[in-house]
Design a protein that fits this description.
The chain is α/β, with parallel strands linked by helices and 152 residues long. The chain contains two helices and 13 strands; from the N terminus they run ααβββββββββββββ. Strands 2-5-8-11-13 form a five-stranded parallel beta sheet, with no helix packed on it. The longest helix is centred in the N-terminal third of the chain and has 18 residues. The protein is globular. About 10% of the residues have low confidence.
Length: 152
């Protein structure tokens, strides 16, 4: 586990949620003790706060839970650096059609309450996804997304 990643997270979480972004951080480590600790933390977060982010999910430094309840991400989703997830966010997979797959989310993305991102969509960097939005299309950098279906 990289000390640099943990230091970046610590700076970001001053006053933030107790569980912060540590859930998946040790997934890339080859040490079995890191993976066991990560799995224990994941199980505690899932039971206590209904957060389902698998230890194998690719997540950059600075993941932040604004209101850490009922957050779900697909195992194969990719999240960049400094992602803000809020209560009720779902990042999921589509199993058929032209958008079959999971989302790739860039850096510096704020995802509002009850927003849903699905399919093999690419969400760029510096994005704001408004609460209750349904995103199933590609989003260019420096955008604001809102509505169901999404409007960029």
């Amino acid at each position: 586990m990289s000390n640099t990643v943990l230091l970046l997270d610590k700076q970001r979480y001053l006053g933030g949620t107790e569980i912060s972004g540590l859930v998946p951080k040790s997934a890339g480590s080859s040490k079995s003790s890191d993976k066991k600790n990560c799995r224990k933390l994941y199980n505690r977060c899932r039971a206590k706060r209904c957060i389902e982010i698998d230890a194998e999910t690719q997540i950059g430094a600075g993941l932040y839970f604004g209101h850490a309840y009922c957050i779900t991400t697909n195992l194969k989703a990719v999240l960049g650096r400094k992602i803000n997830l809020h209560k009720g966010v779902t990042i999921g997979q589509e199993n058929r059609g032209k958008r079959k797959g999971t989302p790739v989310i860039g850096d510096n993305v704020w995802i509002g309450v009850n927003a849903t991102i699905v399919g093999s969509t690419h969400v760029g960097s510096d994005i704001l996804i408004a609460p209750n939005s349904y995103v199933n299309c590609d989003v260019p950098d420096h955008s604001i997304v809102f509505g169901n279906p999404c409007i960029i």
